């Protein structure tokens, strides 16, 4: 008789809730009862309030139990865990859990389904299909697929990925032409002002996995739960732009992601999906992990490049853009984890398939991450166009405290606080930009009616002051002065003047900062001030009579 397969997540969120202990207890209890069990460590389904979520493979499908703790295991066996029998912790068939069934999982289709490090599992679930199709195409054809799909950067800026790739492809081709051209000496014996080319790769692919935004975890889940998808996306990017080397820059606070990606790269290289001869095509692409040093500002693309090059992580002035002159002075594709992880399904199923999801210029899906004071925190992958109210109440179940929702921060610690009047707006890049907000990386942090918005605005300025690289004055000094101004406003010291000064300071930071660190810090400050003035001791503006 074949062993019963039991799935216990290896995701960091599940580990924090005791998944290792649960897995060990299941194996021990099965041995004590003389039952054959194979414990598979899968990724998380993203239902964090149910972690550790144990799944049992049955003829009808996988049956879910959760949240399971070590002490629950004997009683679960007694109730018929291995046969998928009903229990107080049972949620029935996983595929029929409404929270999952209502999602459109494209990028996260394999998440929680497969063993993250099993090459066989990955290939059996459409893995490498996109890479194999890309190998039969030219770089320009691959780029056109990404362009036609409408994929935009999922890291926050929402810049069209295909345009960035096309720019790198063109810059890389120009560099190759210069290398191939015969050297012409000027009359004085020089090289006509042209610097000698040191050789090496003509382009790079860099994945920004420095996921530092509060309330975000989709990058971490991807690296821990489906690492080959990211590897495949980076390899396709390399083929598209002619890059032979890629770097994966992972935040140091993600040790499990670092270990999983290192092992996945090793296995993918040994199997021929990376290295000197990708899938026997004769085309090389190598990939290495670089661990970040803990600076939030290194999530900014040029500061990240400085860090990878071994320098202090400070922002570079633009131009030149990294697509023209990036890592080690070479044209560089820089995308975040979800952007690159979205590429394999676009190549495997075609641009039109991906284009069918979403609305307006926001195509495809976005993995929204529900966090903060919320009953059902976790990851929800949906096509663009649903509302914040649907996410927070239909999926999230409202606040964990049971109190009314007061404010929802969308887009990370530098995102705006969205008031109730905007909760029914479609989650779409342009719709949110129209009222001064951003979708960012898809992080959603919920606050109930006990939240003090003045203190949260102060935290935004304090966070910027702590994390600023210090290169530009509006960010370095502006954030420090912002904390002081908010403190005086809260204390009631000439409050009208302080509020006027705070708005003036935010305008300077917004328009004068070198990067989004200082440029976006005003978003949470101004949105808190505009929509919750009473928390600053300011009377709410009255509507003018018609």
Briefly, what is this?
The protein is of the alpha/beta class and about 550 residues long.
Strands in their spatial order, largest beta sheet: 2-1-3-4-5
Using the CA coordinates, give the radius of gyration. Answer: 25 Å
Instruction: Please state the average pLDDT score.
Output: 93
Secondary structure: helix percent? 25-40%
Please tell me about this protein's structure.
It is a single chain. By secondary structure, this protein is an alpha/beta fold. It contains 22 helices and 16 strands. The strands form four sheets. The chain has a five-stranded mixed β-sheet with strand order 2-1-3-4-5, covered by helices on one side. Strands 13-12-16-14-15 form a five-stranded mixed β-sheet. Helix 6 packs across helix 14, helix 7 packs across helix 10 and helix 9 (218-225) crosses helix 11. Mean pLDDT is 93; it is low at 186-196 and 542-546.
């Amino acid at each position: 008789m074949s062993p019963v397969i039991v799935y216990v997540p290896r995701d960091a969120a599940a580990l924090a809730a005791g998944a290792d202990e649960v897995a060990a207890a299941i194996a021990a209890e099965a041995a004590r009862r003389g039952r054959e069990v194979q414990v598979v460590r899968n990724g998380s389904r993203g239902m964090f309030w149910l972690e550790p979520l144990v799944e049992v493979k049955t003829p009808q499908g996988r049956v879910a139990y959760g949240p399971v703790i070590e002490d629950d295991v004997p009683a679960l066996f007694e109730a018929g865990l291995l046969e998928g029998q009903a229990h107080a912790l049972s949620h029935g068939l996983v595929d029929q859990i409404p929270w999952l069934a209502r999602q459109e999982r494209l990028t996260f289709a394999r998440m929680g389904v497969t063993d993250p490090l099993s090459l066989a599992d990955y290939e059996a679930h459409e893995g490498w299909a996109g890479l194999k199709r890309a190998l039969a195409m030219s770089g320009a054809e691959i780029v056109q697929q990404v362009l036609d799909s409408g994929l935009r950067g999922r890291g926050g800026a929402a810049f069209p990925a295909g345009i960035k790739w096309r720019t790198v492809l063109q810059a890389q081709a120009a560099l190759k032409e210069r290398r191939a051209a015969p050297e012409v000496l000027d009359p004085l014996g020089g090289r006509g002002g042209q610097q000698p080319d040191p050789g090496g790769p003509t382009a790079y692919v860099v994945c920004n996995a420095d996921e530092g935004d509060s309330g975000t975890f989709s990058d971490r889940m991807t690296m821990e739960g489906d690492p080959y998808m990211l590897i495949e996306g980076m390899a396709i990017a390399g083929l598209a732009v002619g890059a032979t080397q890629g770097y994966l820059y992972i935040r140091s606070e993600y040790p499990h992601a670092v270990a999983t990606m290192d092992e996945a790269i090793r296995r993918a290289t040994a199997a021929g999906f990376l290295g000197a001869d990708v899938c026997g095509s004769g085309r090389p692409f190598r990939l290495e992990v670089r661990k970040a040093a803990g600076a939030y500002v290194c999530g900014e693309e040029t500061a990240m490049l400085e860090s990878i090059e071994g320098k202090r992580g400070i922002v570079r002035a633009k131009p030149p853009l990294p697509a023209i002159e990036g890592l080690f002075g070479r044209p560089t594709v820089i995308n975040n984890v979800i952007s690159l992880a979205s590429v394999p399904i676009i190549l495997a199923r075609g641009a039109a398939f991906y284009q069918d999801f979403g609305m307006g210029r926001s195509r495809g899906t976005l993995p929204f991450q529900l966090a903060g004071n919320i009953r059902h925190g976790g990851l929800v992958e949906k096509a663009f166009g649903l509302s914040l109210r649907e996410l927070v109440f239909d999926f999230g179940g409202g606040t964990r405290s049971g109190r009314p929702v007061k404010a929802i921060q969308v887009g990370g610690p530098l995102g705006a606080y969205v008031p109730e009047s905007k909760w029914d707006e479609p989650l779409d890049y342009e719709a949110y930009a129209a009222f001064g907000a951003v979708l960012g990386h898809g992080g959603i942090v919920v606050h109930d009616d006990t939240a003090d918005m003045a203190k949260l605005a102060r935290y935004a300025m304090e966070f910027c002051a702590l994390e600023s690289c210090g290169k530009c004055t509006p960010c370095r000094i502006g954030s420090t002065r912002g904390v002081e101004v908010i403190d005086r406003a809260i204390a009631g010291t000439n409050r009208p003047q302080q509020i006027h000064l705070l708005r003036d300071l935010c305008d300077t930071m917004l328009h004068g900062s070198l990067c989004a660190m200082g440029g976006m810090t005003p978003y949470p400050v101004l949105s808190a001030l505009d929509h919750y003035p009473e928390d600053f001791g300011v009377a709410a503006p009255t509507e003018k009579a018609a």
